[in-house]
Design goal:
Length: 333
């Protein structure tokens, strides 16, 4: 379903929880199945007919703008708002109020992996006459202490929030995914020219003022890529077809995807695997459940299981499981 809406992609943050992976790369640029995670978000929006996009930038801003350009290669029209001083999630949206032109708009993180039916979210939003709607995901009881929890009534109206409560104190298991739908009037709750946050400041104001504020239960996939462990899990989920993301290249055997120029040289391979362009796996190497970036070389004695290897890395004599291997470091997740 094509939506009449614009979208803002939040791409200004430093990704500090993902250190050391984000020391030298913008968090929206970290690769998931060998494409920047933000590219998957643009794809999600485009599939729902949302092609007028704006992204706020700060940390490694040029990496993002150089890669995505005006968005035309991805079937979108992408503009940028460069923030010399970070304005926060809500302050950033207020800063580009003219872009929304009084229309319904979506705010979504450029560093999360999501596969929601945004058309269903929009229908819910309209039916409730909502000013603001949060997409929420039902999580396991042991996860509530890691995320922001949303408490609703039977109609989905938001009553309160709990920030990372203990499992025994949690009033629900609905996690805030950071995917929001707003009417333009919400911008009236945000002061201009200063740092302001949706979760910490705008949402409490909406509750205080009795605004029509709802939570929509999303049935699709969502992963907060906040830590190296979550980043690794997002790649493996995508590799296993759980995130609505298809690997690049062609499937040369069940669960093994190969881009142009990838050479396996008699390596022992166990699906699922995604092999980037021009990578070379030497004879004797063993890989299973891995995402291998473009131009990677894997030596004959290497043994990799549940690993993500970034482009251009030379992997020598190493045995690694649950690891992210970059040109600068190995992160054991």
């Amino acid at each position: 379903m094509a939506l009449r809406a614009k979208a803002m992609i939040l791409a200004a943050g430093g990704g500090t929880r993902l250190y050391p992976l984000t020391f030298s790369i913008a968090k929206p640029m970290v690769p998931v199945l060998n494409r920047p995670v933000m590219e998957h978000i643009v794809g999600l929006l485009r599939r729902h007919g949302i092609t007028d996009l704006i992204a706020n930038l700060h940390h490694h801003a040029d990496q993002i703008s150089s890669y995505f350009g005006n968005g035309s290669s991805l079937g979108a029209r992408l503009e940028y708002s460069r923030e010399d001083v970070i304005l926060g999630t809500a302050g950033g949206a207020k800063n580009v109020a003219s872009f929304f032109a009084g229309e319904t708009f979506i705010v979504i993180g450029g560093d999360d992996l999501a596969d929601f039916d945004l058309g269903a979210m929009a229908a819910f939003h309209r039916e409730r006459g909502a000013l603001a709607t949060i997409a929420v995901s039902e999580i396991a009881a042991e996860q509530v202490s890691q995320l922001g929890i949303v408490v609703t009534d039977g109609d989905g109206r938001i009553r309160s929030f709990q920030e990372k409560p203990r499992a025994e104190d949690a009033l629900s298991r609905l996690a805030n995914t950071g995917v929001y739908m707003f009417e333009a009037d919400v911008l009236g709750f945000i002061p201009g020219g200063q740092f302001f946050d949706f979760g910490k400041q705008v949402f409490p104001l909406l509750l205080e003022n009795g605004a029509p504020f709802f939570a929509w239960a999303a049935a699709g996939y969502w992963k907060d890529i906040g830590t190296p462990r979550e980043y690794l899990e997002a790649n493996l989920d995508a590799l296993e077809g759980k995130a609505g993301v298809e690997p690049l290249g062609r499937e040369v055997s069940p669960g093994i995807w190969r881009e142009a120029g990838a050479r396996t040289e008699g390596a022992q391979l166990e699906a699922p695997l995604a092999l980037g362009a021009e990578c070379r796996l030497e004879q004797g190497s063993r890989l299973k459940r891995c995402v291998i970036g473009g131009g990677v070389t894997v030596g004959s004695t290497a043994r990799l299981d549940r690993c993500v290897v970034w482009p251009g890395v030379e992997v020598g004599e190493i045995r690694a499981r649950d690891a992210i291997i970059t040109p600068d470091c190995i992160v054991w997740a």
